[in-house]
Each structure stands twice: as structure tokens, then as C-alpha cells.
Amino acid sequence: MDKLDRKILELYQHDTRRIAASIGTEVGLSAAAIQRRLKNLRASGAIRAETAQLDPGILGVRITCIVCVSMAPSAASHRQLDRFKRSMAAAPQVQQCYHVTGTMDFVVILMVPTMEDYASFARRCFESDKSVARFDTHVVLDRVKTGLSIPIPSE
Question: Which of 40-49's residues contact partners 24+ apart within 8 Å by CB, and which partners?
Fold first, then answer.
């Protein structure tokens, strides 16, 4: 990946509907060259997906919870951790799940329409899971910044 690819990705990740000619004008390449490079970036896996960013408020999904999960010492096996990871990956409410270092084992970011929906999720996915020793929930008061853009190093 060269400097031009990095610049293209920087522009493209913020607006995938932007036409190749517009990107080309900024980086000094033709629209055809931009399209070829985007195709190669997709094929290489640098571009993993192109998705729509939806407005949760309009859809009635107003509550974001950040849950810190600590696993029971007996759950330290790869099998138990992998099972928990799979269950979080399969849950449509879970936006992001990170296996982390420190005082907790996982950070789970999820979105639900109501607190009742969260309570049901927590009972099903945390309280009834014997491998979960403890979980702390933080309810988001204000979405200051959200997104998945990546700061792209120049080289």
C-alpha cells in the first residue's frame, strides 16, 4: 500500500458514496485509476465492508450501554472465552465487543430500545452465564463521538 492508497482510504472511509472523480481530483489521479485502486484495496482486505450508518434515534434504539464483563477464574479456558465471544458476536444488540487486558475481561457496547430490553439481555447473556463472574453497566448519557474511522498513518 503506497501513499496514494492511504490518501484514498482516508477520503473514502468518511464517505463511500463519494465518486471516484472527486477523490481523484484530490489525490491527482483519474477516476479510472481510483476505481482500480479501490478494487485492489477491497481484494486485499484493506476495505473489509461498506455499510450504512443509521440513526438510532429515528429507529427507536435510544439506549447505548457500555458493559464491563469479568469472567470467573474457572472460565479462563480458551473454550469458555471463545463461547462467550461467539455469543456476543451473534447478539444483534451488540455493536462492539473487545477482549481486553486490565481489571475486566471484556468491554461490550450494545444498543437497545428500552431499559427493559437491556435487563432482558443482561439476564440472558450475563446473569445466566456461569462463566461471567461480574458485569458493570454504564448507560450513555450523550453520544459525543461515534464512528469506526481509522487514523491512517502516512507510511
Answer: 41/1, 41/5, 41/8, 41/9, 44/1, 46/1, 46/5, 46/9, 47/9, 47/12
